[in-house]
Amino acid sequence: MTSLNRPTLPDAVRTNGATPNPWWSNAVVYQIYPRSFQDSNGDGFGDLKGITSRLDYLADLGVDVLWLSPVYKSPQDDNGYDISDYQDIDPLFGTLEDMDELLAEAHKRGLKIVMDLVVNHTSDEHAWFEASKDKTDPHADWYWWRPAKPGHEPGTPGAEPNQWGSYFGGSAWEYCPERGEYFLHQYSKKQPDLNWENPAVRRAVYDMMNWWMDRGIDGFRMDVITQISKTIDANGKLPGEEGSLIEDNPVGEEGYSSPFPFCSDGPRVDEFLAEMRREVFEKREGYMNVGEAPGVTPSRNEHITDPANKELDMLFLFDHVGVDQKPGGSKWDVVPFEVKNLRERLADQQSAVKKAGWASLFFCNHDQPRVVSRWGDDSTEEARVRSAKALGLLLHMHRGTPYVYQGEELGMTSAHFTSLDQYRDLESINGFRQRVEEAKVQGAESMMASLALISRDNARTPMQWDGSKYAGFTAPDAATEPWISVNPNHAAINAAAEFDDPDSVYGFYKQLIALRHDNPVVSAGDWNLVDASDEHVYAFVRELDGRRLLVMVNLSGRPVDLPAESAALLASGIDESQVVIATRGASHAVVSIANNELAGWEGVVVAL
């Protein structure tokens, strides 16, 4: 583990309720999607040596923690989120020695490394699953095995144990002829769910986590960790199973019911997370653990991240990234973005951790499209830069720990693919097949529009380092093309073009990151919403020990009037010395405020 190259917050400042303050309370995390970050050997896939070669870039940006999406051994059915060996590196990414080198070089630069960990499920090629196919093996109860529905021939339609559907399309049950039973998979059929009810499963997971921590990593980001506890009845049966005391929900338009209400934030989540804390983290220092939290509400986030409860440091909540999806509908039923919906969701998250606990701040990651294309405006270069800065300012001025997804600091856009064969994402391809070709609940043109807006592949195109043929991700004369197409706009949008330009999106992100390190009001001040009903401006006040910052961001492309509460706070006018940071510069901000307006995509932070 390593120490950061900057001061931590003084104990007199309260962050998550712990004493002393945790080191990550004024940190910024940078997520790396390894297969798309930097290819060092010309095979078309990013790798660990490629990440090591770019550490100076990340140190210059000023981030503190690097979160790596999975690099473990895997068949790559879901791009590494299907792990077949937790204690080895997939040859696609390199070797354990490459991982050790990355750790050592990152630590030299004061950068911490957090690994992505997937323990809700494994690959069906994991040795545990292979062993569990034998009902007499000690691993027989390590997964959710169930017999066919009584009166049905195993392996035939309708014989599944209940009517649950997979989030990736089709049934959530797969028949295994070797065992003569079905196994549960909430995701791909190559991702069987582990049975966390079995203490032996938990022991094996904790032992593996300790092995990595002892090797020198600085913590884990845990994939869908709040789905490890399933709702079962007094007899151990899942909802909807034959004889279960718990009724399943009705089937939806695609012909299946959803396991989500019964597999997310289940009855033993707190117990399991507290046990993990004791067994892996309790006697260690300098680590960070964050969990991806499907189904967790802001109030539950407060409980799980309250240090008094000794579970997790942070959670990723998802209510705010669903504001452009139809409530109660499929992920692919999209609706127009409205500022009020985003503000309401984030306000709920911020308010829930006023007294204890902590928030994770993100708009982008490997599962979300590029925010500048989703909620900003990438139709012109000017609009792209301005909206990327505005959305970055908005996110980073909230209270919590910000996460920057690779390329977000450049204002990278979504892929803008136009045909299904350009996609590589299992969820997107299966979603099209399920909704358009099988269930016929959505037309092809509509589904392609949905994919263009929110497919996960939008965030997975190669990192844009320069304007060369493959964007510097791999050599321009490489024999193998990148695993997924490079965005054609890389000639204009790339790190080389932005690195030395203080007016670039990259230059602005450096300012945002430095501000969190240096200004305790930003990292730890109270958060209070103002102008809660404005249609275009998202505004709030941060306050600490009598120091107040007013944050105002116009999330539209046209000039708008200052909302009433913000205008009242600025009634006496401001000068440039009061502008802490602004997307269009301090002088522009002063003129805008004097005119009682904000320009299109203008964001301003003012010291009151």
Automatic annotation (TrEMBL):
Gene Ontology molecular function: any one: alpha-amylase activity
Family indicated by similarity: Belongs to the glycosyl hydrolase 13 family.
Source taxon at top rank: Bacteria
Protein name: Glucohydrolase
Single biological process term from Gene Ontology: oligosaccharide catabolic process
Pfam families referenced in this protein's UniProt entry, alphabetically: Alpha-amylase
Organism encoding this protein: Bifidobacterium lemurum
Cross-referenced SMART domains: Aamy
Ranges for domain Glycosyl hydrolase family 13 catalytic: 31-460
Keywords carried by this UniProt record: Glycosidase, Hydrolase
